[in-house]
């Protein structure tokens, strides 16, 4: 009899935990993960700070209403150190131990791609922030049921960069330097190359490096010898600053161009004069009136300016809250279904999640130029 009662108790515990679905009492638990240590920690810290700030604002206003009941929001965050395997580990912890109803982040494609099987098994949706590789949400033509994002994707970003370089900057010969060990960098390099050649341009040099490299002079020397009109650098700000400085030391004067891995205060402080006059594709114009209120709130709370990631995770939170309210229940599977087709006016633009791709439909890209150490908006540019 005692053994029978213990068995029943265990079953009840499992059932109750299974039914919780991220909502415990009057609280909805939401996961976040990203890099809080390493080269990309500045972005991870910015994302998690924004999530905590927004949740606090919602809670101070009485919480959010889901299915006729008010809930407070609780953020549970982990550092995945920018590592793909650690991303899988923390998502297992968030879904298995913490029982979150949904997850926000990460910003890196290489960390967002491998978590799909864990999400599917747990039936918990993830909304990536600045993870732009197509494989984050779609693999072999099939949409991943629990992976979503609020940013545009690399085929579009690569086409925008190539089009702007060819049509607006007059470049007909381009060189590429990219990180062969990074999914984001590989993807963006591929789509720039395809679209630049489609325009009628030629790729005169295509050089790679590995994560952790700090000397880019051998590759840059080959690029210099090829005589390009523009050099495309689809990787992150630290390596951009290092390679830009080395390029200028070698006498390379051509315009440098990149993607959404560039913008950070650290690019300006580390790159200095080497990145002056350079261009990159971004998700928004930092001077847009729509983003000023968030920027001011973040500065007031944390005493420093927000990074790019903050704007995207801000909109990911808006999308998640709307999906919870649409679902009418605190359940990961229901929230995932509610995310399909949902439409929200975010600070980075209108976000309508496609049921077919789980990507936002028709988000504009912004072209920014570095002028006097500032990111200066040039124009909204759509791939032609």
UniProtKB/TrEMBL annotation:
InterPro entries: BCAA_transport, Leu-bd, Peripla_BP_I. Residues 27-371 form the Leucine-binding protein domain. Pfam families: Peripla_BP_6. SUPFAM superfamilies: Periplasmic binding protein-like I. CDD domains: PBP1_ABC_LivK_ligand_binding-like. The keyword Signal applies. Keywords: Signal. This is Leucine-, isoleucine-, valine-, threonine-, and alanine-binding protein. It comes from bioreactor metagenome. The gene is braC_8.
